[in-house]
Amino acid sequence: MNWDEDSAAGPMAADRVVSGTADGDDHAVEAALRPKDLGEFVGQERVREQLDLVLRAARARGATADHVLLSGAPGLGKTTLSMIIAAEMGAPIRITSGPAIQHAGDLAAILSSLTEGEVLFLDEIHRMSRPAEEMLYMAMEDFRVDVVVGKGPGATAIPLELPPFTLVGATTRAGLLPPPLRDRFGFTGHMEFYAPAELQRVIHRSAGLLDVAIDEEGAAEIAGRSRGTPRIANRLLRRVRDYAQVKADGLITREIAARALQVYEVDGRGLDRLDRAVLTALLKLFGGGPVGLSTLAVAVGEERETVEEVAEPFLVREGLLARTPRGRIATPAAWDHLGMVPPQQVTGGAGRAGGAGGGQGGLFTE
Ligand SMILES: Nc1ncnc2c1ncn2[C@@H]1O[C@H](COP(=O)(O)OP(=O)(O)OP(=O)(O)O)[C@@H](O)[C@H]1O
């Protein structure tokens, strides 16, 4: 499990300002901030370019676009891209999600009410029920579903023709999709985390739409703390805007952004209180590891799942923590980030590898 960040929320994990998953507050403003066409969509050059070709070709043929699968972490712009696909095709869009489709009948109802060329956005497609998934195979390939009427031996399947439509499936984990489903998508786009310069552009664009004054350095400061995720960048921008209004003259500069994000406990690299608690325990209590996940979780007073699913993915991605068969270890960058010196260096030992304190491995690994 990697990206369902908020699926296990403990005390430090609840309501994280750096969570990639949308909260109620986000939903309210996101509609206003969504880019409306591919030209406005920042970054993801490869996906954008490929998608542009797919859509242009379909338009030129006067056909419905191929089914599209978008994979990537929460908040990277999958919903936004699906809306852009519909807009570029001049088609309406219907939005639903895997967990909302409990029964095949739910899916049949949606599919049978689609109009020709309509885009169906199915978020979290990996969480759909098995029977619905099987119905989707046929719908995607033949634009047809079999609706089963009745039960037991008397049950009959009534074939139902569907108008051609474009399915846009979104998933945090393309690898979890059954191959028959994956194979039915004509195009798969893997969304990457954004570079700081791209997030800076996202922040400037959003600041313009929200009528917020911000200079280059202010935007760079927020971008550097946004964990490669536009949703987090937009959320931090709103928090910093509040601070700038209340504590300064409204203009977001580097200093204002840094002070504001200190209040929200988001550090210069985007780590929040939970991330730092995990790293600090790893360094201070276990000499940098290796230490077992459960032991580490107890040390920070969180559930094991919270540490594994909420804090670790980002720490690993940032190269601050590594998972090894003997347990979690801190990397040299972790010591640097918290301004600490690994034990070997203090005692004059060789190297400063993440295996510091490795002698404790037998004690703490699982
Ligand atoms: N490339 C981008 N350029 C500008 N803004 C973006 C971009 N990608 C995402 N955003 C902004 O980030 C916010 C979140 O995007 P979106 O809802 O599309 O993410 P998502 O990947 O669908 O997330 P989830 O999987 O949680 O639904 C939106 O407000 C959107 O405006």
From TrEMBL:
This protein's UniProt keywords: ATP-binding, Cytoplasm, DNA damage, DNA recombination, DNA repair, DNA-binding, Helicase, Hydrolase, Nucleotide-binding
Major location (coarse): cytoplasm
Signal peptide: none
EC number(s) stated in the UniProt entry for this protein: 3.6.4.-
Region entry Disordered, spans: 1-21, 346-366
SUPFAM superfamilies the UniProt entry points to: P-loop containing nucleoside triphosphate hydrolases, Winged helix' DNA-binding domain
Region (Head domain (RuvB-H)): 268-366
InterPro entries membership: AAA+_ATPase (IPR003593), AAA_lid_4 (IPR041445), DNA_helicase_Holl-junc_RuvB (IPR004605), P-loop_NTPase (IPR027417), RuvB-like_N (IPR008824), RuvB_wg_C (IPR008823), WH-like_DNA-bd_sf (IPR036388), WH_DNA-bd_sf (IPR036390)
UniProt keyword tRNA processing, yes or no: no
Catalytic activity: ATP + H2O = ADP + phosphate + H(+)
Keyword flag Coiled coil: no
Subcellular localization: Cytoplasm
Binding positions (ATP): L33, R34, G75, K78, T79, T80, E141, D142, F143, R184, Y194, R231
PANTHER family with a match to the protein in the record: HOLLIDAY JUNCTION BRANCH MIGRATION COMPLEX SUBUNIT RUVB (PTHR42848:SF1), PTHR42848
The protein's role, per its UniProt record: The RuvA-RuvB-RuvC complex processes Holliday junction (HJ) DNA during genetic recombination and DNA repair, while the RuvA-RuvB complex plays an important role in the rescue of blocked DNA replication forks via replication fork reversal (RFR). RuvA specifically binds to HJ cruciform DNA, conferring on it an open structure. The RuvB hexamer acts as an ATP-dependent pump, pulling dsDNA into and through the RuvAB complex. RuvB forms 2 homohexamers on either side of HJ DNA bound by 1 or 2 RuvA tetramers; 4 subunits per hexamer contact DNA at a time.
Note on domains (UniProt): Has 3 domains, the large (RuvB-L) and small ATPase (RuvB-S) domains and the C-terminal head (RuvB-H) domain. The head domain binds DNA, while the ATPase domains jointly bind ATP, ADP or are empty depending on the state of the subunit in the translocation cycle. During a single DNA translocation step the structure of each domain remains the same, but their relative positions change.
Assembly description: Homohexamer. Forms an RuvA(8)-RuvB(12)-Holliday junction (HJ) complex. HJ DNA is sandwiched between 2 RuvA tetramers; dsDNA enters through RuvA and exits via RuvB. An RuvB hexamer assembles on each DNA strand where it exits the tetramer. Each RuvB hexamer is contacted by two RuvA subunits (via domain III) on 2 adjacent RuvB subunits; this complex drives branch migration. In the full resolvosome a probable DNA-RuvA(4)-RuvB(12)-RuvC(2) complex forms which resolves the HJ.
Entry's family note: Belongs to the RuvB family.
Protein name: Holliday junction branch migration complex subunit RuvB
Organism: Streptomyces luteireticuli
